[in-house]
Design a protein that fits this description.
The complex is a heterodimer.
Chain A lengths: L1 E10 L2 E11 L4 E5 L6 H9 L6 E6 L11 E4 L11 H11 L8 H6 L12 H13 L5 E5 L7 H17 L3 E5 L12 E6 L2 E7 H7 L1 E5 L8 E6 L4 E5 L13 E3 L3 H13 L1
Parallel strand pairs in A: 3-7, 3-8, 5-6, 6-7
Antiparallel strand pairs in A: 1-2, 1-4, 8-9, 10-12, 10-13, 11-12
Helix pairs in contact in A: 4-5
Chain B lengths: L1 H16 L4 H13 L5 H22 L3 H5 L3 H6 L4 H27 L1 H21 L6 H30 L8 H28 L11 H32 L1
Helix pairs in contact in B: 1-3, 1-6, 2-3, 3-6, 3-7, 6-7, 7-8, 7-9, 8-9, 8-10, 9-10
The chains are: A alpha/beta, B mainly alpha.
């Protein structure tokens, strides 16, 4: 579905990617994470075609043979629609740019958006839902979502995620999303990619990752296990280990704790800052 | 998209038309305070010229204003539209307004002045479009276009004199063919490098900071304009002495 080969990209003197490769099969929900400024959003923009790579290729096979952008839905970290347009005009604009006629406004009805409202008057959440409904009208095969989920209120967030889950269950769309908070989306993710200095340092299915990253609570660090991060408390310490090996013996006084995705990624990112 | 661009262009046109409010104000000021006794028609003519030429620059300089102001380049470039189609959709309504204004001038003032104004409007519009990528401020765009227009007039005037001299025509006679062709050649000399730089930048345009995308302007447009300016200055004194001789 998505094939990135030998990608290089820089912002002036700042090299973001150099020989980067990534392959995402159809129907996979892939989470890209990492510390701020590591290139997560840049990668999504490169895939969306709004940034041009310096070298390398990004191939997107939507199975239709047409301009891949017709089947890519891209929502950036901040909605950037034309602010001066009214909602109705923005819909007209989007439909004509995509050569489409029928717009399904079901999603907009949930948000009570009027077609006469100017986009600049909408809240961030409303803009995101409007953008989402515009994207849905094009029936995307590849959906790129850049950290928008947590910048909207609980109701709109639920609406956004319900729509996404519905889309995933109805059609085998591919989703690449960038996020730093995973509480709401953990159950839809298939694969986790952690970026560091423009390179992939972790690339695991979510189940593998959960099996490989554990927290060991004890007084001393577990022997023969690599420690990602360490937190010290009075009387005990927490050691985040990766890769965890169940065959390695640990002290009797220590216990192993399973982690959720937020804790796992926090451990990786915390390890980078340490 | 075309609909949006027509709406934007009409909005810019209305903004420029507001300058027409200056006509009654100037007329009344003259009548009541200055007593210069300028006829209403003369004031009207000057203000209309300002509106028409101002619109040409304003329409070109603001061609990407919505994208820059709303940071909507990201949205626009993510749509399945080629760069060529985007540009065409933006140029078409603006050119239609310029053509419309030229037709109005043609009806009001007749052929040659309207054609002359049409050429000038196109030169100003092209220059402002070509400057729209590197220049964000409309005021700086106006200054840049004014400088380019001055260079264009200087070149056109010298080419015209050269043609008169080569074809052995009389300087005081009206030579429309030489006048228009000198304007076209001058426009090509002044605007072609800028146009090439614009197109090279525009066809690869992405979300990188604009300063990182302006290499064609630095490599092609700037040296060309400096060269044309230097040549114009160099030949200017020969031109002046020749002018005195032929007059």
């Amino acid at each position: 579905m998505l094939e990135i080969k030998d990608l290089s990209f820089n912002y002036g003197k700042t090299q973001v990617f150099d020989g980067f490769d990534l392959s995402v099969p159809k129907g996979q929900v892939c989470l890209i994470t990492g510390i701020n400024g590591v290139g997560k959003s840049t990668l999504l923009r490169l895939i969306a075609g709004v940034l041009n790579p310096d070298s390398g290729t990004i191939e997107i096979d939507t199975g239709t043979g047409e301009d891949p952008r017709r089947r890519i839905g891209f929502i950036s970290d901040e909605p950037r629609l034309y602010q001066s347009l009214r909602v109705g005009q923005a819909i007209d604009f989007h439909m004509s740019a995509n050569d489409l006629k029928n717009f399904d406004d079901t999603l907009l009805q949930h948000t009570k958006l009027g077609s006469d409202q100017r986009i600049r008057e909408l809240s961030t959440g409303q803009k995101i839902i409007l953008h989402l409904s515009l994207i849905l009208s094009t029936e995307p095969e590849l959906f790129l979502i850049d950290e928008v989920i947590h910048s909207i209120d609980a109701y709109l967030r639920r609406l956004f995620l319900e729509t996404l889950i519905q889309l995933l269950s109805q059609r085998r769309i591919t989703v690449v999303l960038v996020n730093l908070n995973f509480h709401d989306i953990e159950h839809i993710i298939d694969r986790v990619i952690l970026l560091k200095s423009g390179e992939i340092v972790v690339d695991e299915s979510i189940d593998n990752l959960k099996a490989k990253v554990k927290k060991v609570v004890g007084e001393s660090p577990p022997q023969s296990l690599d420690i990602l991060a360490r937190l010290d408390f009075s009387g005990h310490s927490e050691f985040y280990v990766y890769p965890f090996d169940p065959d390695v013996a640990i002290e009797d006084s220590s216990r192993i704790v399973d982690l959720n995705l937020t804790e796992i990624v926090t451990a990786f990112i915390g390890g980078e800052y340490a | 998209m075309l609909k949006k661009e027509f709406r934007d262009t009409a909005y810019r046109f209305v903004e420029c038309m507001l300058i027409l409010l200056a006509v009654p104000i100037a007329y009344l000021t003259d009548k009541l305070l200055i007593h210069f006794r300028a006829p209403f028609q003369d004031i009207m003519e000057v203000v209309v010229m300002v509106v028409v030429l101002g619109f040409s620059v304003y329409a070109g300089a603001t061609i990407f204003q919505a994208e820059k102001k709303d940071r909507a380049f990201e949205y626009l470039l993510s749509l399945p539209l080629t760069r060529k189609k985007i540009l065409w959709n933006k140029l078409l309504p603006r050119l239609a307004f310029i053509l419309g204004l030229t037709l109005v001038l043609f009806i009001v003032r007749g052929g040659p002045p309207a054609l002359n104004m049409g050429i000038i409007m196109l030169v100003l519009f092209s220059a402002s479009v070509f400057l729209s990528l590197p220049v964000d401020s409309v005021i700086i765009a106006f200054l840049g276009v004014a400088m380019l227009y001055y260079l264009f007039q200087l070149c056109a005037s010298m080419i015209y004199r050269l043609m008169i001299s080569l074809w052995r025509l009389h300087i005081l006679h009206y030579n429309p063919r030489e006048e228009y062709s000198s304007q076209v050649i001058a426009a090509l000399i002044v605007l072609a490098p800028l146009g090439i730089a614009f197109w090279k930048t525009y066809k690869n345009l992405d979300l990188k900071p604009m300063r990182l995308q302006l290499k064609p302007y630095l490599v092609i447009a700037l040296p060309s304009i400096v060269t044309v300016l230097a040549l114009a200055v160099f030949f200017f004194r020969y031109y002046l002495s020749w002018l005195y001789r032929t007059m």
